[in-house]
Amino acid sequence: MTQSNIQARKRPGAARLRAFLRIFFSYRGAQLGIVCLLFFIVVAAIPDTLVGPLETAANATGDFLAPPESRHLLGTEEVGRDVLNLVVHGARISLTIALLATVITLIVGTIVGITSGYFGGWIDVCLMRLTDFFFVIPSFVLAMVITPVVLEVVGRGREILGFRPSLFVVVVVIGMTGWAFIARIIRSQTLTLKQRTFIDRARVVGSGNFSIMVRHILPNLVPQIAANGALVVANAIYVETSLSFLGLGDPLQPSWGTLLSLAQRAGAASAGAWWYLCAPGVCVLAVSLSFVLIGNALDDTLNPRRRVIP
User: Fold this and answer.
1) What stretches of 178-249 show up as alpha helix (H) in DSSP?
2) What is the mean pLDDT of the chain?
3) d(CA 99, CA 76)
4) What ranges do the domains of the chain cover?
5) Is 74 in contact with 275 (CB distance < 8 Å)?
6) Second label for 121, Cα 20 to 30 Å away, from 72, 154, 220, 275?
7) N-terminal to C-terminal alpha carbon distance within the chain
8) What is the DSSP string of 231-259?
9) Crossing angle, helix 274-302 and helix 28-45, to 10 degrees?
10) Contact 256, 283 (CB under 8 A)
11) Is residue 293 classed as helix, strand or coil in its secondary structure?
12) What DSSP assignment string belongs to 99-163?
């Protein structure tokens, strides 16, 4: 094959990518979400460079609940630690938990949805009844009930896959309790795709069920998975923050939810220490909003029925 033929084959894909990016970035929400998300990713990637090592009670540099000033731009907390230092280091914990939990959610939801929609019959019935169980019970309530039980079984000893047990359990619990609506969406799309002509052709040439699901159906589901994945991250951040606020996170890791929990226990609201509550709270809202804006823009871009071409 000549070089010109190779380039000709590449042009349609490159053209589609350019068209996708042009439409995606034409939405103001996508622009705002990407900029805000990139900011927090940079913060989470180099916290030591930005604010130095994580402060502990032993090396606290400020007074107790001191308001913002030049040395401590976001004030200090109840033992004198710099709130900016804690919030910046907490970005890595919160984003890591949310992203890993989202990966688990998307994998489980996609597998259940494709399997249920493709095979149908008693497999579909069993999987959808299981999905209904997770669907009708709010994921946060289910996670709130399961997390302390699993923590009691696992214990809080040595690390698991590089995570402290409490963080590992939170990641798995969030991921395993929020997949139901993803499974519903993937199943409905699979029911439509398996009736298409290209699936019949794949069966005629001898492709097995697994090959059809992975090589023919799954690639056509990527737009739906991507669009809904951004919304799943926002929900995962909310659930992680809520669990940590209730004391089910790791008190030794300053995630944003843990900081809110510590602020509540220290009586920051009654003491007028608004900076202690606002800093992690605003971060949670900003990151969640960023993923929602990105998810909505992806849905509008990838769904021709909703797309608005500028």
Assistant:
1) 180-193, 197-204, 209-212, 218-245
2) 83
3) 29
4) 35-57+72-302
5) yes
6) 220
7) 38
8) HHHHHHHHHHHHHHHTT-S-TTS--HHHH
9) 130
10) yes
11) helix
12) HHHHHHHHHHHHHHHHHHHHH-HHHHHHHHHHHHHHHHS-HHHHHHHHHHHHHHHH-S-S-BTTB
For the segment 69-124, what is each residue's pLDDT rounded down to a tens digit? Answer: 888 888 888 888 889 999 999 998 889 888 998 999 999 999 999 999 999 889 99
- The Cα 264–Cα 97 span in angstroms is 22
CB 294 within 8 Å of CB 27: no
- Split at pLDDT 50, 70, 90, the class of 5 is very low
Q: Indicate the helix (H) or strand (E) that contains 32.
A: helix 28-45
Sequence-distant (6+) residues with CB within 8 A of 104 are 171, 172, 174, 175, 176, 179
Task: Assign a CATH topology to domain 35-57+72-302.
Answer: MetI-like fold (1.10.3720)
And the tokens for 47? 């916290």
Distance, CA of 260 to CA of 264 (rounded, Å): 6
Residue 82, phi then psi, degrees to nearest 5:
-70, 125
Q: Is 164 left (phi over 0), alpha (psi -120 to 50) or beta?
A: beta
pLDDT at 88: 93
Can you tell me the distance from the alpha carbon of 128 to that of 121, in angstroms, rounded to the nearest whole number?
11
Averaging pLDDT over each range in 22-26, 135-139, 286-290, which range is the top one? 286-290
Cα-based torsion angle of the residue sequence 158, 160, 161, 163 in order, rounded to the nearest 10 degrees: -80
Distance CA 218, CA 225 (A): 10
What mean pLDDT is predicted for residues 251-277?
Answer: 85
- Which pTM was predicted? 0.83
Tracing tokens 């991250």 back to the chain, one arrives at 233
